[in-house]
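Reviewer 2 asked us to include a model.

Predict the structure of this chain.
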Amino acid sequence: MTDGSPWTWDWSVYLLIDPITKSVRYAGMTRSIRHRIREHLYTSSHHKEKDDWIKFLRKRKLKPDVIVLHVCDTRKEASDVEKHVIETMSSYGYNLFNRLHTRGYKNPRVFKSSKDKKEFRVPS
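Predicted model (structure tokens):
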């Protein structure tokens, strides 16, 4: 960690939260939260469902809420934590946009929106 600011930690595992439903929709890791959030907001990715959700929010002048879940010293630690968060939330049926195969995970399931999936809600 550098100066204690949540925007300058070496590695962070974070969640994107729907500002309307307060549901967790995406878990990720980054070296720069500020830069990564800008990428989510303004750049298309290989997660079409996530991109469509962000476009939906932006049309309504909204942005996903961001929670830093864990600060890590190394990329490997962040990757392990991110994988654990995705796998755990998905195993409980939480409705994430993540695709577990994007970083070489063995489980290639895609977690799309569906009525039978639970959504993880952040307490207000």
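The first strand starts at residue 11 and ends at 17. DSSP finds three helices and three strands in the chain. We have added this to the supplementary material.
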